[in-house]
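Researcher: Batch entry, complex prediction.
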Amino acid sequence: MTQAVNSPYFNANARKALDDAFLQKALARSEKGFIERRKAAVEKLPEYDALRDSARDLKDHILAHLDLYLEAYEKNVIASGGHVHWAATAEEANEIILGICKRLNAKTVAKGKSMISEETGLNAYLETNGIRPVETDLGEYIIQLRGETPSHLIAPALHVTKEQIEADFRRAHVELPPERNLDEPTSLLAEARAMLRDKFLAAEVGITGANFLIAETGSSVIVTNEGNGDLTQTLAKAHIVISSIEKVVPTREDAATFLRLLARTASGMDLSVYTTFSTGARRETDPDGPLEYHVVLLDNGRSNMLGGKFQEMLRCIRCGACMNHCPVFHAVGGHAYGWVYPGPMGAVLTPSLVGVEQGGQLPNASTFCGRCEEVCPVRIPLPKLMRNWREREFERHLQPAAVRYGLGLWAAFAKRPALYRAATSLAMRTLRLFGGKGRLRQLPLASGWTRYRDFPAPQGETFQSQWKKRGTAR
Amino acid sequence: MSEPIDAAAKKPPRVGLFATCLVDLIRPRVGFATAKLLEDAGCTVEVPQQTCCGQPAFNSGDRKTARELAAQAIEAFEPYDYVVLPSGSCAGQVSLHYPELFEGDAAWLPRAKRLAAKTFELTAFLSDVLKVTPKARFEGSVTYHDSCSGLRELGIAAQPRKLLANVEGLDLIEMKDPHVCCGFGGTFCVKYPDVSNKIVGKKTENIVASGAATLLAGDLGCLMNMAGKLSREGSKIKVRHVAEVLAGMGDAPAIGEPER
Ligand code: SF4
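Model: Structure tokens for the complex:
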């Protein structure tokens, strides 16, 4: 029941995205804001780069001792009155959550934002089992209305324009008076809040994700800007946290290190509006809170990444900066990537989690411009990791034949300098004959280039042969 | 390895010019411009038999071919005091990725590292190592695109601008987002033509909006991509490698113009 993988069709998805005028408008609107806000926040913090280094080292340390920190975390969750459930696969995680909901006779669950629940396809699973999930994050609420999946880690409805949202609300909120003005984002938020309030109260179970899990206290931490997560988890009978295993950090102080980086890199804020720590169920002295507190810890392929070529990807704190700065993401949006995680981080993580046979297109769909690595707060070498995937694909002969043969032919010449010189010198002189105007509008075998661009004609004789002549002439 | 060269030193530095395959095949003029700049600065320039640095293979996941081509280049260029390339991405391949390719190889790794340490992109070599500012004239306004590998792998941004600032008659106008990718990406542009086209379209928009009459950059791949798009759009903007202007060869036919 995990989310279906549509990544092998990246090229077709991308073409569709490029032709989608609404999407292109939404993408064009969002790009600058993300980049400028991050830049301003980073410039205000002189120790930003040093903070990145310590965050990277800290994550590496955690990943090297992940078992120990997870054990400590589990012990402290139990000690504070909570329950920990280990799920090796997405299916297991869904079953555990359904089990809790059924035991509590839940009809409705309120959900905070969680990419892990996207990974397991939780909403669809609950629905087929007669339970209604209600997304409470504004962006998630919008795409739930539209029957879509998130297209960005922290801005799930990035692909939708304000005008589309207004139309969706008018369609779905039947009691909304037609004269009510919804021009401003704030009025949209107020409208969504009004709709959601009753649902919060009706929900028997609240499900949230986790940005961090703190080993020393057994707490889970979420950051939100709307405060919906707090309501989700305090009003229901049970609070279920669904998280992947690599989110654990040793101490509260360590969580603070990442929190400082996360908000600045993601949205340019010093801290998110709400940072919520949850530890166990309601205690006798607590005025409110859930009666049960559960944590579902999902592996779903991550432990296989430990100790291997892709371990560094597990440092990711899901800030979204890599996609905000990615020219490919900004051309096609998140859905073209065809699974849960878009952009550069998705291009590395998707093949790790769903297999390179299905996810292999994504690490190829990058220009290797390196901006993602430049902005990543935990310094993940994303281009290098994408290249690692390309190597895996190459070893396993998964690339299209045309690419392999094209490269193979090129390599055969490039490895024989004398042959190369003779062949290229002839080829360039021939090409030159066809490029009388200085450019070629069509070129056999290179339609990918000439569909949109002219091909500058070669000058004629190659540099090496001209240089040789110069030598003898002297 | 990168101490400034003492003008009074007895022997001029011997530079192996690695033209890169695109320059070799498509635009030899850039090779000659590079040679001229180096010779004017007092270097002895040689062009050993060469093919490709192996970057297309490396980035396509074909490590074996990449290693073979790297070994071939190491053997060809080992004898020189310096190796200079008129390309940030190929210079990055040699100076950063060659050592990576031979990790754990006791025979080749030291050779790869030695070569890496004496390999430079042209504008960085002129301004950081030789510390020279070539004299040239070029009438008109130019805008400069920072190619990604040169910028992010080697930190090249100030050097070409500093050298251009010294060219008489030249007016540098910065475009919006000069550091954003042009969508070339090696084989990316033919494997994902639609996405590449969208990206280069944004780039040419910024180039045109700058109002500059000439576009310069330090990598022929990106230049061909942008020149091809500008020409398809019917733009009159001329496109050249930065070396051509620095070497005073800015009046020859631009990229995509017929040879005279
Ligand atoms: S890979 Fe880095 S930049 Fe991208 S989401 Fe993860 S932490 Fe942020």
